[in-house]
């Protein structure tokens, strides 16, 4: 199996980085080929400067975008790992979708037919961390809104099968034992890939 990890956290010492490392080591030990795209380490430019999102001709795709698209095409499984900032993903990850998941690559939009996802053979797991408690997030419908935005509005739209979208709550406030339990759960979740 070929698995691509997309990490979107600026700190190499973050819990998100620990999740990425755990996924990479666990899947490698299971025989997966694993690639990691650490968007901050890559200094990925999230700013959409050309209209490759709506323009089907795709005549202005940069080398940076081509490299990311090659990695996505290579992968059978995608694993997204990111923190919750202002009830959503970091801007660098949103920009990744804006720039890399282009019309004609990730989806095809036709005026009369609507959208067709072009990444239909891919499975995906999402790990999202938050500093907030589950008791705060769920009653305020923040979890369901973020799941809908990511899982349906982006991934399903592109044909990607989201296996699970796992939230880890209160990450900055839990002890080492709780974090180790979370990392153990990470391994059991990616075992389905």
Automatic annotation (TrEMBL):
Give the enzyme's main class according to its UniProt record, as a single word. oxidoreductase
Q: Domain of life, per the record?
A: Bacteria
Q: Which residue numbers delimit the Flavodoxin-like fold domain?
A: 1-188
Q: What is its EC number?
A: 1.-.-.-, 1.6.99.-
Question: Which keywords has UniProt assigned to this entry?
Answer: Oxidoreductase
A GO MF term? oxidoreductase activity
Q: Which Pfam families match?
A: Flavodoxin_2
> What's the family?
Belongs to the NAD(P)H dehydrogenase (quinone) family.
| Name of the protein this chain belongs to | NAD(P)H-dependent oxidoreductase
């Amino acid at each position: 199996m070929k698995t691509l990890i997309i990490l979107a956290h600026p700190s190499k010492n973050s819990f998100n980085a620990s999740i990425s490392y755990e996924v990479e080591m666990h899947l490698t030990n299971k025989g997966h080929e694993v690639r990691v795209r650490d968007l901050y380490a890559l200094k990925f430019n999230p700013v959409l400067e050309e209209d490759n999102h709506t323009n089907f001709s795709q005549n202005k795709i940069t080398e940076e975008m081509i490299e990311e698209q090659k990695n996505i095409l290579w992968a059978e499984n995608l694993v997204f790992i990111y923190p919750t900032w202002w009830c959503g993903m970091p801007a660098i990850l949103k920009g990744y979708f804006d720039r890399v998941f282009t019309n004609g690559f990730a989806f095809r939009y036709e005026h009369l037919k609507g959208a067709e996802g072009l990444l239909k053979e891919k499975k995906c797991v999402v790990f999202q961390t938050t500093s907030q408690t589950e008791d705060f997030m769920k009653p305020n419908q923040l979890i369901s809104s973020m799941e809908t935005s990511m899982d349906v509005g982006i991934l399903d739209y592109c044909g990607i099968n989201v296996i699970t979208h796992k939230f880890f709550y209160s990450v900055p406030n839990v002890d080492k034992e709780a974090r180790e339990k979370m990392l153990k759960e990470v391994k059991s979740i990616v075992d389905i890939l």
